[in-house]
Amino acid sequence: MIKQAGKDHAELADDFNRDEDRVNWHDETLWFIREKRDKAAHKIPEWESLREAASQIKNNVLSNLNNYLLQFEKNAVANGIEVHWAADAAEHNAIVHRLINEANVVRMVKSKSMLTEECGLNEYLAKHGIEVIDSDLGERIVQLAEEPPSHIVLPCIHKKKEEIGEIFHKHLGIDAGISDPQFLTEAARQHLREIFLTRKVALTGVNFAVAETGEFVVCTNEGNADMGAHLADVHIASMGIEKLIPERKHLGVFLRLLTRSATGQPITTYSSHFKKPRAGKKMHIILVDNGRTVQLGRQDFRNSLKCIRCAACMNTCPVYRRSGGHSYHTAIAGPIGSILAPNLDMKQYADLPFASTLCGSCSNVCPVKIDIHEQLYKWRQVLVKEGYVPAAKKAAMQVMAGTLSSPTLYKLAGKAGRFTIKYAPFAVSNSLNPWFKQRDMPAAPKQSFGEWYKQNRD
Amino acid sequence: MTSREKILAAVQANQPDLTALPDLSGFDGQAFGSLAQFAEVLTAVGGKIFHVANYAAIIKIILAQYGSGVRIVTQLEELKKLTRDNLESLSQIHDLHDVEVAIIAARFGVAENGAVWITEEEMQHRVVPFIAQHLAVIIHEDAIVPTMHQAYDRIANTTYNFGTFIAGPSKTADIEQSLVIGAHGPRSMTVFVLKNS
């Protein structure tokens, strides 16, 4: 995904923040999902042991990935699945294109796959005259709106139902002015049923692939991945190489954690295990690198590859909730996206590791115990060292460092700040001060803590 | 060098030292496991549950719920009188597009999440439990495992080409987080728990 008109996270967040009611709704809704996650987690007494087990399994996967890839390939081929390897996004897209051509069709139905978003598959295929229809309801909505998803689990969480009604009025021919979610979902059901019944090629993502058995698992609530795959002649499954797990029994750990972390449900409605193609039909799996082996080599960042894409880190993040997914200008938004994206392009995504308060809530809810906020902090240091941070931010940080390291300067700066807010608030509470945007400046205390302590120490 | 070789070489060069897999034997599921819990969780995720003594009771409930005029498919010998379809001889799966009710035997249920495990063998065609407007599933009352760990223990010695855990009707909350039942798959899921005879 290309940065909208070259804007960075802060500028895009500004755009999102213009509509205060919407920001508040977005913030509260995602926090509500975070609370559902808490309730679901607290019902499982062994929750923390499960997180630890999941973390250890994923650590093992990363430490033995070459063997698991070979084992998976061997077993999948034995099951009758054709295995393809793609070094980057371009190769992945070319493979999909070739498979569509081989099926002699120009239309494909696709269920949710963040990897294909990462690879820009839809745009690539459109350029080559292939029509792709996304079948996840949220993805279909953003596709019709010609926008990328803003959240990996809830792709159109940034949209209001009235806007969705308008989109369906324009594209699906429903009456104008309808905003009832039940009605809108039914309209999409009818529209997509026709698509499922007529497409000969279906692409799905992959949640987990099992080295031991050569099978892969796809989880949905809507049933769209299954409807697409079981009605098509050709099923293409795209997966990042880090989605492998060693043994089938490990699915028990991950399926217990995934949906509870994502939405607070005990499990998705459908957890489908694809082991062999249907008789006479074709099943392909594309193993995609696209920078993952580079990230694997970065000691400080490699364990970002443990991610199972539950989005718990986004739902809990105070910055994500108030800036919206699109402000991250990358396929995977939020805290985890901000440590994955700079690996692909440090220059383009240098702003993302700074889009965080480093509060650590993301790391606390992560079901596979990725140290997300610590990696964000480490990326900042790498990015400054490599020269990808704007001069103004660097200069401001240096002034701050100077002030904080000198007690005299620190006291002086504090006094000046309190004086200004008290007697000349207009000097800071104006549009030139970025801290004042969408915020009110706090009332200034009469004295500093240092001064108070001097008076009250006895 | 092919991409396969390139990727494998890069993985080999960059992966950290081998770490051990955890021992999962502690997840023995003692906090879960009852039929009552299965029923409670299934209901919470939008499913319906009926405890029945025999297949005759199932037929009665199905007919009461859906009437006799709709297309019902099932592979179960005991329910043959409900269907005019023979799934085994169906040549074009797309012909299933107007199925109203699919009735399928499930291998077992999982108490902690209300899911049932069904394989292609019981479905006959993989699309059956997804394309029907309503799904009905039959399990035996003693076929409830506590958690997903025991579920995979149970699956371990079986073979399947395709298998799925299904927990409730198809659903979505993509529009403003409003829960809507009946996204692309069945609009309802009914589980019949068959008493041991």
SSE map:
The complex is a heterodimer of chains A (458) and B (197).
Chain A: H1 9-17, H2 20-42, H3 47-63, H4 65-78, E1 82-86, H5 89-102, E2 107-110, H6 114-119, H7 121-127, E3 131-134, H8 137-144, H9 161-171, H10 181-198, E4 201-204, E5 208-210, E6 215-220, H11 224-231, E7 234-240, E8 244-245, H12 250-262, E9 270-274, E10 282-288, H13 292-297, H14 312-316, H15 318-323, H16 334-344, H17 361-365, H18 372-385, H19 391-405, H20 407-423, H21 449-456
Parallel strand pairs in A: 1-10, 2-3, 2-4, 4-7, 5-8, 7-10
Antiparallel strand pairs in A: 5-6, 6-9
Chain B: H1 3-14, H2 35-44, E1 48-52, H3 55-66, E2 72-74, E3 101-105, E4 108-110, E5 115-119, H4 120-123, H5 128-131, E6 134-140, E7 144-145, H6 148-156, E8 162-166, E9 171-172, E10 180-181, E11 188-194
Parallel strand pairs in B: 1-11, 2-3, 3-6, 4-7, 6-11
Antiparallel strand pairs in B: 4-5, 5-8, 9-10
Could you please describe the fold and organization of this structure?
- The complex is a heterodimer of chains A (458) and B (197).
- Chain A has 458 residues and is of the alpha/beta class.
- Chain A has helices at residues 9-17, 20-42, 47-63, 65-78, 89-102, 114-119, 121-127, 137-144, 161-171, 181-198, 224-231, 250-262, 292-297, 312-316, 318-323, 334-344, 361-365, 372-385, 391-405, 407-423, 449-456, and strands at 82-86, 107-110, 131-134, 201-204, 208-210, 215-220, 234-240, 244-245, 270-274, 282-288.
- A six-stranded parallel beta sheet of chain A has the order 1-10-7-4-2-3, sandwiched between helices.
- Chain A starts with 8 loop residues before the first helix and ends with a helix.
- With 197 residues, chain B is of the alpha/beta class.
- Chain B contains six helices and eleven strands.
- Chain B has helices spanning 3-14, 35-44, 55-66, 120-123, 128-131, 148-156, and strands spanning 48-52, 72-74, 101-105, 108-110, 115-119, 134-140, 144-145, 162-166, 171-172, 180-181, 188-194.
- Chain B is globular and about 65 Å long.
- The model of chain B has no long low-confidence stretch (mean pLDDT 95).
- The interface between A and B is large, with 88 and 71 residues.
